[in-house]
Amino acid sequence: MKHLIAPSVLSADFANLQRDIEMVNSSEADWFHVDVMDGVFVPNISFGFPVMEAIKKYAAKPLDVHLMIVNPDHYIERFAAAGASVITVHYEACTHLHRTVQAIHAAGCKAGVAINPHTPVALLKDILVDLDLVLVMSVNPGFGGQKFIPNTLNKLRELKAMSSAINPDLLIEVDGGVGIQNLADLIQAGAEVFVAGNAIFGAPSPSVMISELKQLDAQLKS
Ligand code: DX5
Ligand code: ZN
């Protein structure tokens, strides 16, 4: 089974973005997690296309784009053109989710759906077969550095059971308050992609922290 580490660029130093991207390039991390916030779906604004294009210019690993925006359908082709490998939209922001997922695939990207802490996993049952990834939010989206919500572990276990039955290739991603202290529990609950912002960029040495996250990962796998 694959276990991936995805540092969240939201916690990088935007005045030294090239430096931080190159640190991730030369680290053991697998993906770049790119958080796009519109100030409507979530109470914060992060960045849009110019910054995403700047990230792409230096990033040597796939861009995992997490859209915390309303009307994501309007922008899917542009995010694909800007270099996204994975595009994840929020369940709560999509009225015609099946159509949105098809549009992501048509744009040549892997399709993900994110669910907020209050959204039941069971609501994904009829879309699961069409997805490459489900992102379980373990904090309320909008900000880095928040505290992990423990009920996420139950949601991950439920999603893992559902995906084993319906779509065994599905990747399960967890985002928010993830770090060395809860990684083992999250792996055991079924998560496979780990987004970490503050835990990595707030560490004395981000690349050492990435390595520790990967090593813990490897120990548990064996
Ligand atoms: C929150 C974002 C996260 C955030 C995670 O809305 O989706 O990706 O950057 O940051 P940490 O790991 O600091 O909780
Ligand atoms: Zn995110």
TrEMBL record:
What is the name listed in the Swiss-Prot or TrEMBL entry for this protein? Ribulose-phosphate 3-epimerase
Give the enzyme class. Answer: isomerase
Q: A GO BP term, please? A: pentose-phosphate shunt
Checking Gene3D superfamilies in the record gives: Aldolase class I (3.20.20.70)
Q: Which family does it belong to?
A: Belongs to the ribulose-phosphate 3-epimerase family.
List the catalytic residues.
35, 175
Any idea which UniProt keywords this protein has? Carbohydrate metabolism, Cobalt, Isomerase, Manganese, Metal-binding, Zinc
The catalysed reaction is: D-ribulose 5-phosphate = D-xylulose 5-phosphate
Q: Name one Pfam family in it.
A: Ribul_P_3_epim
Q: Which GO terms describe its molecular function?
A: D-ribulose-phosphate 3-epimerase activity; metal ion binding
Annotated SUPFAM superfamilies: Ribulose-phoshate binding barrel
Amino-acid positions noted as binding a divalent metal cation in the UniProt annotation, renumbered to this chain: 33, 35, 66, 175
**General function of this protein:** Catalyzes the reversible epimerization of D-ribulose 5-phosphate to D-xylulose 5-phosphate.
| CC annotations in GO | cytoplasm
UniProt binding sites for substrate: 8, 66, 142-145, 175-177
Which cofactors does the annotated protein need, by name? Answer: Fe(2+); Co(2+); Mn(2+); Zn(2+)
CDD domains for this protein:
RPE
User: In which organism is this protein found?
Assistant: Pedobacter ginsengisoli
Q: What is its EC number?
A: 5.1.3.1
